[in-house]
Amino acid sequence: MLRPFEIHEPATVAEASRLLARLGEQAAVYAGGTELLLLMKEGLAHFPHLVNIKTIGGLDAIAFEDGVLRLGAVATHREIETSPAARQHAPLVARVASQVGNLRVRAAGTIGGNLCFAEPHSDPAAVLVAWDATLVLARAGGERCVPAAGFFLGMLQTAREPDEILTAVEVRPLPPGTGAAYHRFALHERPTAAVAAVVTVRDGAVAAARVVVGSVGPVPVRVPEAEDALAGRRPEGEVLRAAAEVAGRRADVLEDMFTSTEYKRHLVSLLAARALHDAVSAARTAH
Amino acid sequence: MTAGRRDSGEGKGGAAAPVDVVGTPVSRVDALDKVTGAAKYTGDLIVPGMLYGKVLRSPFPHARIICVDASAAERIPGVRAVLTGRDLADLDPYYGHAVRDRPVVAIDRVRFAGEPVAAVAADDEHTAHAALAAIQVEYQELPAVTDLTMALNDGAPRVHEEALRPGFLHSGEFRREEGNICYHYRIARGDAARAMAAADVVVEGDYTFPAVYQYAMEPHTVVAQWSADGLTVWACCQHPYLVRAELAGIFRLPQSAVRVIVPYVGGGFGSKSYTRMEPLTAALARKAGRPIRIANRVDEAMLTTRRHNMRCWLRTGVARDGRVVARECRIWLDTGAYADNGPRVALAAGDAAPGPYRWQAVAVDAWAVYTHMPPAGSYRAFGATHLQWIGESQIDVLAHRLGIDPVECRRRNLLRPGEEVRPGRKPLEADLAADVSKVAAAVGWGTPKPPLVGRGVSIGVMGAGANPASTAAVRMQADGTLVLLASTTEIGQGARTVLAQIAAQELALPLERIRVAGADTHVTPYDRSTGASRSTTVAGLAVQRAAADVREQLLDIASRVWGLPRVALRLHEGAVWHETESRSYADLIATHFGIAGGELIGRGEVAPGRGDGQAAGPVFWEISCGGAEVELDPSTGRIRVRRLASVADVGKAINPQLVEVQDEGACLQGLGNAFFEEMLFDGGQLINGSLLEYRVPTMADLPDEFHSILVGNGVGPGPYGAMGVGEGALAAVPGAIVNALLDLGLQMRDLPLTPERVWRRLREVE
Ligand SMILES: Cc1cc2nc3c(=O)[nH]c(=O)nc-3n(C[C@H](O)[C@H](O)[C@H](O)COP(=O)(O)OP(=O)(O)OC[C@H]3O[C@@H](n4cnc5c(N)ncnc54)[C@H](O)[C@@H]3O)c2cc1C
Q1: Which CATH number fits domain A1-173: 3.40.50.720, 3.30.465.10, 3.20.20.120, 3.40.50.1970?
Q2: A178-285: CATH number
Q3: Is residue B644 a contact partner of residue B672, using CB atoms and an 8 Å limit?
Q4: Which of A134, B95, B718, B721 is the most buried (most CB within 10 A)?
Q5: What is the pLDDT of residue B207?
């Protein structure tokens, strides 16, 4: 049951940050509320103060400038999914936004809320870690940038300080010869298992690879053994199969009430094979 | 979704008037109210002075309550009363329509995790909720039997040690067996063991069905108020008169001192059949001396009633030519801590076990078993959903083994119209072989199949209509408009629309001139229940008779006015006509009363005592017939439904669109039951008690193609030859899917068919 709370509507990031600093554990950032309000309704958390950041001007902008696609933190999944800039410069990021939950969640839920909540079954998180995106965190005193891979510390835990606001996600277009792909398998709305792959192919061999397993563990993580199995090799048949198999074997898999870890490992291998196949195909046509 | 195909035959017609409103897909009379949000549900009501109630539930599946100390909670500002087992001393505190085994609130002992132990009434919900934590309960944990195996073990702790009284449903009939057996139903026909020994081919297997939640969008909500007149309860219940009877029993009141009012109901699917949160709310209101509202959350609704999980063993024997010979079956249904509707579910499951076939011998035993689990009761097509897929899958296994086409195998064995379904019961109305051919054709039976695509059909019959006791009244007002009074509740099925259509038809009255009142036991006449697909068939017949009663009165008046015999008169558009001359109903009423006022009251009743229905029942045999075409992804075990077909054999579709949506809704729930719905427990504790973790079907789960085939042979016992639908479709779906997988060589014996389960089975087969 939702207990009463007070809503604050700051006009600037600095003002929001100061509010957070002052109210401490009494307050939470409130964006789309799709996670936060559920939590509060279930009685799992209670914040007497919510700091609504949707009132801060420009925080929802999606723009491509100086070679960087900048997704404002309060841009909704739906806005990203339908944004021409996102579709042009990071089509996979736009496509993944379109796979999140259902239309209601996409229309209200924001990219910032998704990442800051650090729920293990996040679709964007896995893709952004593989893509090596940058998260911009701001507080009254200034700004800092954190690579996506360094942001997720554990289940529901991030590198964000309590008075920091995530203001944007920066995504650079993939370098030439690089392809990206993401495959998910969902029993519920959120994925049960997911794999993102970003592969650079040069002279017929893998020059760089990032294989990220999402949803099965506490945070999306790269699987170095799978990446090593690809490095320098021709990305074909047995090589891809072996890398995918390693991804399933090495992934950090948590138990849950719905599926066994054995089945999840199987899914990871399967999804890794599909993601690697698609990423390599995309890399071959990306110049 | 493709538009449903209609093979609608003409009804045989009970009325003199030409068929026009009846048989037309008029839009729902409550549509506008519902889409604009104007429709009022129980939770929308504010009764002056109303307090809010919250329930403290047991953390243990089985424990003795040493002491409940509510003093700290009572001291919290805003808390007005706390109800505990001690407050029930002057009541008859055990209720249950089948077995009076369930206390209004726990008395000395809790029997499942989630059982109400106390309830708080406070000025607002937050205060009530917060006060729950201040109630001190000292428990002594006791050994619990949290599954069927544990409950059936020799020497297992008994869930109920004391003698139990039967509820009104089983007066005289209720027998209790040893240990934790709550109820035993048995069918024995012929010498099954001997017939089985003589069969050419025999299959047998063990099967399981999970606990499932009925998920109605509106969880149980009740407002209770006491006054000098007695008790008034607003509740989203399906059977207001049965709830009234139980409340009168508990609070030792005459039935006329209990008033149950049912606003719109936000779905029930069985979860709101019989008595649920009403006694607890009324007891809390009595203690507080103020009106109280209690609204369950989803997790609380799941703990209030659910579908039975089941274990089953089934054996089928056939002759070489595909003729069925014998079937033996044993069924164990986990009814939880209280009988709820367990006995009826055992009966329906037992009845569904043989399927609609011509056997030489049958032996079925079905047991409802007490456990320390949340109680289980009704859910759309209970019993039939549990059993049909099992019996139907053995028919397919045998057909495959004999090299006979499964549809052909059914044609050879299906009962024909007029044949006996179960000894002593009503013979079959419908043409099952024709029905099964229709669904088979709709899923492409016999046409080439792409790889990894399988097809299956499933057919059964279920006794429907519950008890054929309904009454209705129609009141024609002085201006010629009509108020229709019936106690069938509008639960989303469109009852108000269909009943209005029937009255409109009988009285040749435009639909806009009819208003249908909500159920209110002080106002709307007796109806037994809203369930078992009975509203159109049984309540509809009562309404038809009530409307006909007014029609006769109008004709009498007109014949007096004109001095003409009644055969010279006809009804049309709200007036009685003689050739080209007409008198409006308003005119006739004014003439009759001699003033500009008055009204005509029509009365209709359907009663077994006057020969309606057959003593041994059922009111009719509802048909459960479906077909599926599925595609298997062997890498994940996921199944996609390419085509789903269902026959709604309704006798006469009074409103074809409402029939279709009933059929489609039931199919969608069938897909949920088949593929993913399952309540998960750990040591008796529900662990997926939210809609994030308990998945119900959504539009995303619709099959690629969906065929709802309406069949109307006019053979039903309801108005215009109608018979009910709305349940059968659900029961057919799991069987059609399981058989489609069998077509791909995969035999599944446990539901739901989660991808992991299918994937594991695939690996076993390989
Ligand atoms: C039914 C359902 C299905 C879903 N399915 C999926 C799915 O398939 N895939 C998927 O990836 N996700 C899924 N989600 C999660 C969804 O993506 C997130 O709910 C949504 O994006 C969160 O954004 P929000 O704006 O609503 O966050 P909120 O609920 O407002 O906030 C979430 C958390 O982040 C904090 N926060 C929010 N924004 C910021 C910020 N800018 N800076 C600092 N802290 C911030 C809040 O304080 C809070 O702790 C689903 C959710 C639901 C309810």
Answers
A1: 3.30.465.10
A2: 3.30.390.50
A3: no
A4: B718
A5: 98
CB-based contact, A5 to chain B, within 8 Å: no
Residues of chain A contacting residue B129, judged by C-beta atoms under 8 Å apart: 1
Could you give all domains of chain B from N- to C-terminal order, each with its CATH number? 467-610 (3.30.365.10)
**DSSP secondary structure letter of residue A123:** H
pTM of the complete model: 0.95
Per-residue tokens: B491:
């639960």
- Residues near B583 by Cβ (< 8 Å), separated by ≥ 6? B558, B561, B562, B575, B576, B591
List chain B residues with CB under 8 Å of A188: 692-693, 695
The ipTM value here is: 0.95
Bridge partners (DSSP) of residue B623 are B461
Average pLDDT in the B427-446 region? 96
Q: Number of A to B CB contacts under 8 A, please give it.
A: 33
Q: What is the pLDDT of residue B168?
A: 87
Instruction: Tell me whether residues B756 and A257 touch, CB distance under 8 A.
Output: no
Start-end ranges of CATH 3.30.465.10 in chain A?
1-173
- Two structure tokens written together for B533: 């697909």
Selecting from A257, A259, A263 the residue whose C-beta is nearest the C-beta of B687 gives: A257
Percent of chain B clearing pLDDT 90 (strictly above): 91
Mutate to test the interface with A, among B132, B293, B294, B636 (most CBs of A within 10 A): B636
Q: Which two tokens stand for residue A258?
A: 């719905």
Rounded distance from Cα A114 to ligand 1 centre (Å): 4
Mean pLDDT of B119-143: 97
What are the structure tokens assigned to B285, written together?
């209101």
Residue A96's identity, in one-letter code, is: V
Cα dihedral: B279, B282, B284, B285 (round 10): 180
Q: pLDDT value at position B614?
A: 64
* B429 annotated active-site: no
Q: Which of B126, B687, B698 sits opposite A1 (nearest CB)?
A: B126
Please state, as a whole number, how many other Cβ atoms lie within 10 Å of the Cβ of residue B114: 26
User: Cα(B745)–Cα(B750) distance, rounded to whole angstroms?
Assistant: 16
**B494: phi then psi, degrees, rounded to nearest 5:** 95, 20
Q: What is the DSSP string of A132-194?
A: T-EEEEEETTEEEEEEHHHHEEETTEES--TT-EEEEEEEPPPPTTEEEEEEEE-SSSS-SEE
Q: Identify whether the C-beta of residue B482 lies closer than 8 Å to the C-beta of residue B514.
A: yes
Please list the residue range(s) of chain A that carry CATH number 3.30.390.50.
178-285
DSSP string over B449-474: --TTEEEEEEEEEEEESS---EEEEE
Contact flag B693-A266 (C-beta cutoff 8 Å): no
What 3-state class would DSSP assign to A199? strand
Q: How would you write the pLDDT of chain A (287 residues) with one tens digit per residue? A: 888 999 999 999 999 999 999 999 999 999 999 999 999 998 899 999 999 999 999 999 999 999 999 999 999 999 999 999 999 999 999 999 999 999 999 999 999 999 999 999 999 999 999 999 999 999 998 999 999 999 999 999 999 999 999 999 999 999 999 999 999 999 988 999 999 999 999 999 999 999 999 999 999 999 999 999 999 999 999 999 999 999 999 999 999 999 999 999 999 999 999 999 999 999 999 86
Distance, CA of B634 to CA of B433 (rounded, Å): 33
